[in-house]
Amino acid sequence: MNSTAHPFHLPIGLAPDASSPEWLNKGDNAWQLTAATLVGLQSVPGLVILYGGGVKKKWAVNSAFMALYAFACVFFCWVTWGYRMAFGDHLLPFWGKANVALDQKFLLDPAFSGKFPAATMVYFQCVFAAITLVLIAGAVLGRMNFYAWMLFVPLWLTFSYTFVAFSIWCPKGFLFKKGLIDYSGGYVIHLSAGSAGYTAAYWVGPRLTKDRERFPPNNILLMLMGAGFMWMGWSGFNGGDPYSVGIDSSLAVLNTHVCTAASLLTWLALDIIFFGKASVIGAVQGMTTGLVCITPAAGIVQGWAAIIMGVCSGSIPWFTMMVVHKNVMLLQKVDDTMAILHTHAIAGSLGGILTGLFAEPKLNFLFFASYAEYVGLFYGFEMGRIGTGLRQIGIQLLGIVFVVCVNVLSTSIICLLIKLLLPLRMSDEDMELGDEAAHGEEAYAIWGTAGDRRETSWYPENDLPVSQKSADARQVEMT
C-alpha cells in the first residue's frame, strides 16, 4: 500500500493536510450547530419540564417521558432513513427516497444549501423533526398508552412529517417550487403538530372526566422554566433558517422576540379585561402563539409587521380558545390536553396567511435570492403587482389545506393501525394512578407517604436489618 495515500474519503476541495475544505464557512457552520442546539434545548429540557410541570402531579413523569422518548426515537429514525425521505432524491412530488444519512462521504460533503457539511444540516433538521413529535405529545397527555406512543412516533415521522417537509422545504418538493413561504416551520412543524395532535387526541379518546374538569399544573414555576427555554431557544429556531450568519438571520431573531412580546402582552391584557386575573398559564399560551405565528415570516417581514402579527396571535387564538371552543360542542368532544389546536394549528395558519400579506419583496430576495417573485399582497398593491400578491395568498392557503389534509389522513391511518395491535388509551383504572401504573415511578416520591418510602428502590436503607437503619427510617416504618 502506498504510504502517502490517504486512508479515508476526503470531501471535495479538502487536501490531506488541510483543516477544512475551501467551500466551508466556519462562521456559518458554527452558528448552524449552535442554532440546532438551541432548538434541541427547546425539547430537552424545555418541553420535557414544561409538560412535567404543566400537568397533574400523577402525570408528571409520563408527560415528561413521552417528550424525552420522542426526541431520542426521532434522532435514531432520522439518521437511519428519515432525513433522506425529507431532503433526499425525488421519489414522488411530495416524498423523497428512503436512505441512510450516516455515510462519511455523504455527511462530509456540502449540504444542499449553506456553506457547511451535510452532517450539520442533518443535525439541524433533526431537532426540527423531533420537536414536532414532542408538540404532538402535548395533545394526548394524561391518557395515551405509552407503548402505543412508542409505535406512533416512528410511524408518524416516516409517513407524515417527511411528506410535508419534502413538499415545502426540499427544493424538489412541489410546494417549494410553487413558491410557498414557510421561513422556519409555521407549516411544516406547527400546523402539522397542531392538526396531527388534535386528530390523535380524537382517536385516543379523552382523559377521565374528573381530570378534564380539573387538571391544574403541579409546578407552575417549573412550567415557566420550560417556557423560558422555548422562548430563548427560538433564536436558533428562526435565526438558523437562512443557513448563514447574515443580516437576514439577525432580522429573524429580532422579529421573533418582538412578535412574541406583543403576543404575550395582548393575551395578558385580554385575560385581565375579561376574566379579571393576570393568568400565568395564559401568558405562556400567548408567548407560544406569538412564537408560532412569526415562524413562517421571521426574516421576510419588517418590524412593524412583526408587531401586528403579535397582536393578532395574542388575540385570535385567544378568541378561538376562550370563546369559540367553549361554545362549540364539536370542539369540546376532542380532549386536546395542551390546546395544541389553538396554540399551534390556528397560530401557525394565522402566521402563514399574514406572511402572504406582509412578505416584503426585498427581504424575500435576501432569503430566496429571487426578487419580485415572492410578494406579499400589501406590497403587490404598492408595486402594481396585485396578481403576484394574490397568487402568494393563494399558495399560502393551498399550503394550509395540504398540511391539514395530509396530517388528518396519515395520523388517522397510523392510529387505527396501532389500535389493531394494542390499546391507544390506558384503562380507566390505570389512569386513576397515572405515573405509578404507567412506569412504576412518581415525580415527587421523595416527599411521598411512609408506604411510598418503604417501596421505592431509591432508599437503600430499606434493605438493611432494623438495627442498622437510621432513627428516621425506623420512625417512618413505625408510623
TrEMBL record:
It comes from the Eukaryota. The keyword rRNA-binding does not apply. The chain crosses the membrane at residues 30-52, 64-83, 122-141, 148-168, 188-205, 217-234, 254-276, 288-319, 339-358, 365-381, 393-422. Pfam families: Ammonium_transp. It is a multi-pass membrane protein. Residues 458-479 are annotated as: Disordered. Signal peptide: none annotated. Residues 30-444 form the Ammonium transporter AmtB-like domain. GO terms for molecular function: ammonium channel activity. Its main location: membrane. GO terms for cellular component: plasma membrane. Gene3D superfamilies: Ammonium transporter AmtB like domains. It is found in: Cell membrane. SUPFAM superfamilies: Ammonium transporter (SSF111352). Keywords: Ammonia transport, Membrane, Transmembrane, Transmembrane helix, Transport. Belongs to the ammonia transporter channel (TC 1.A.11.2) family. This is Ammonium transporter. It comes from Turnera subulata. The lineage of its organism: Eukaryota, Viridiplantae, Streptophyta, Embryophyta, Tracheophyta. The gene is AMT31_3.
